[in-house]
From TrEMBL, chains A, B:
Its cofactor is Zn(2+); Mg(2+). This is Alkaline phosphatase. Mg(2+) binds at residues 89, 91, 226. The keyword Hydrolase applies. Binds 2 Zn(2+) ions. Binds 1 Mg(2+) ion. It comes from Morchella conica CCBAS932. Its EC number is 3.1.3.1. One of its GO terms (cellular component) is fungal-type vacuole membrane.
Amino acid sequence: MARDWMHWNNNATVDLPIDRMMIGQVRTRSSDSYVPDSASTATAYSCGIKVYNGAIGIDDDVEPCGTVLEAAKAQGYKTGLVATSRITHATPASYVAHVYDRDLESNIALQEIGVGHPLGSVVDVIMGGGRCFFTPQNTTGSCRDDDIDALELARQRGYTVFGDRATFEEDVKLPYLGLFTQDHMSYDIDRDPAVEPSLTEMALKGINDLYKATKKSKKGFFIMVEASRIDHAGHANDATGHLHDILEYNRAMDAMREWIDEHDDSETVLISTADHECGGLTLGYELDGAPDYWFAPEHFASSHGSSGKYATLWKNYKSNDTSDATQYLKKSIYAPYGIMDPSEEEITQGLALQSSTSNFGRFLALAFSKRLKVHWATGGHTGVDVTLYGHGLNHEKLAGQRDNTEIAHFAAEQLGLDLEPITEKLRADREFVEKLVKKQPGDAARLKGRDLTHHHH
Amino acid sequence: MARDWMHWNNNATVDLPIDRMMIGQVRTRSSDSYVPDSASTATAYSCGIKVYNGAIGIDDDVEPCGTVLEAAKAQGYKTGLVATSRITHATPASYVAHVYDRDLESNIALQEIGVGHPLGSVVDVIMGGGRCFFTPQNTTGSCRDDDIDALELARQRGYTVFGDRATFEEDVKLPYLGLFTQDHMSYDIDRDPAVEPSLTEMALKGINDLYKATKKSKKGFFIMVEASRIDHAGHANDATGHLHDILEYNRAMDAMREWIDEHDDSETVLISTADHECGGLTLGYELDGAPDYWFAPEHFASSHGSSGKYATLWKNYKSNDTSDATQYLKKSIYAPYGIMDPSEEEITQGLALQSSTSNFGRFLALAFSKRLKVHWATGGHTGVDVTLYGHGLNHEKLAGQRDNTEIAHFAAEQLGLDLEPITEKLRADREFVEKLVKKQPGDAARLKGRDLTHHHH
Ligand SMILES: [Zn+2]
Ligand SMILES: [Zn+2]
């Protein structure tokens, strides 16, 4: 979809930056389903093992597993985690935290900065969203369910803590924790660059800082960068949010490829893949049993924000006049999202769904997708293979059809890491395992009311 | 889907044979749509150019283009075409015929055996289905709209013509034309091995015969083998037909890989890909807005034929007794297709749709897919990338993300072919171009009533 949009927008057959780095495919099944979630797949990427959906940095017996990031740190490398989601979300979490349920993000936040973690603080660069899990309950916007001030605990452990654009652009001392939003960072198309850095900017800052910090060392660095919100736009069936986060991912990949080419001495390898497919997006639409062999990317030219942004805008609009509301819906919601010709039915539905951002958001997204002739199979994940990309030293050794667990084994081999002693060290700390990794008596109540589909991001 | 079925069926994480040959991805767009048909994509694979959907071996100006098969023949190689579709269908047709509309299969049949073709007979091995386009109108089962006996014309040009299993197993003299069915050959799961050879058997026979015929020559052979009906099962949204034709494709690929490994001296390269995706199949289902992270391949164990087979069986059942009909529907249609627990609604619908094989066939297929938790986006094609496989000499040079036109360029380079003189020779024959390639006055009537979705296979 993104490539076809670029073809249309540039009136030429241009490649996506990632096309030049395509080397294989990855199968993503977990230990308990052919259709995985991010926790099981990120654990496959971090520990190299199959585990159940929802599991963070553990095996199927709920015993912690050593990750490539932890092993890298233990063997003298510097380390980093960058994501556009909450930094406590499943993918970044699986590289350093160990817990039986991905939704325990208050617990994950502490492990990420080393609190209660048997190895202490193991991440030198942390950037992303999700400040809300680091501030005590009853402070503005907090998501925690206790009085712990995790930002203060991070400072005590030596972290420079920041969250503003100005500090981001400074030379921040390692280790650092940069959290730019309370919840996930914005979709790239909705992002205010004065407030939030882009994925590309965060990735390059992280890489450059880790490179400088290891220049005199025999060991280099390991960094995990996630374009997290491609998945979220997939769940929302929001083609516009999806497209622009994919384009930003491409810019980040291109920048990292260029960085590697300019730093031959760094002996760096870049490996990129998805943890799983989301949304089951295909191009071409079928209406009433008649398949249409057509995709219409030109509609993207008129679409200027995510469906979530316009759903919130619409919910916040207040008027008792139906005629005013209809005009607002057409001019300020449908038109800027790319729907120039709403039908009577779409107006009626739009007015009826105003109070629910999730229902109106998906209605809006699907109405637009129909015009693009983009089909979504689901608001969840699918079990199809994902594409594998590589660049730099030895990347060709990973080419071909792979199981997701092989990604971790490749990383370990390239860095000369041994995960086994890390696993043993984590498991030897029984207080850690029993109190932080395994299920606690109060957890049922703690997790109650969490959105079930959220559980499966 | 096929890999997960093998995992389930073998209670182990086995690879598909093709997994070991995975080397890249191919984008499939045509000159007039981001969602292609087989004619445009097969022409990309045969001539190395982009053309409109429906075009066979021509460019966008409806001028013929030289194909890799024609160039190979002209330069002293032996050639072959094997397909499980009618041999006049778009993919095999595009390697040797040249015509503005893929539905002109009477014309294509003649060009395939060299009648009216400026280069004469260029295919040494032809095997597949579609005898109906080779027999005169008014003979049993004929699809022709004239009195031409194309089988007799083939014999006059030196072809050994056959269509039975016994002759297939003999040492047939080249060139030969083996047509085993009037229409497409059967889906592999419905196939009677006493009547129809498998794709694997045809591929191996073709390769061995071409190898023997060129053993003393400095030139070798070029063969195009298509597992044609994977696509047809996709159009029908028939997971069972799809699965078993994919498994047979895997067996054929494995046999060809093994053949290459056992014939080092042959300097053979195997390249395999799809012309396009069909059906938009994804694993995991969403019902009433609730995504289910689950795929249930175990249902395949109880599914014993294609949806088309059971739809025909059901249409042919006669009874005036609703109770008898209901029993027959449950026991002889639903159960052997894998639906053990039809709902009241499914029984009612099944009874109501009996007279239409296409409507009942798709209803049956979708009811089963829902149990498998397999989602189909469409009964047509989609514009997503397809996977590229390779084995043997120099296959690694084609690895990575490719445009479909590059497949032809690679084949030409490997065989040392020059397509340009072939294109010139074809175009120099103006009678051929004006009478057989371009649109004729009678064609509108000739094509009238052809099924439009058929046009887009
Ligand atoms: Zn997700
Ligand atoms: Zn098709």
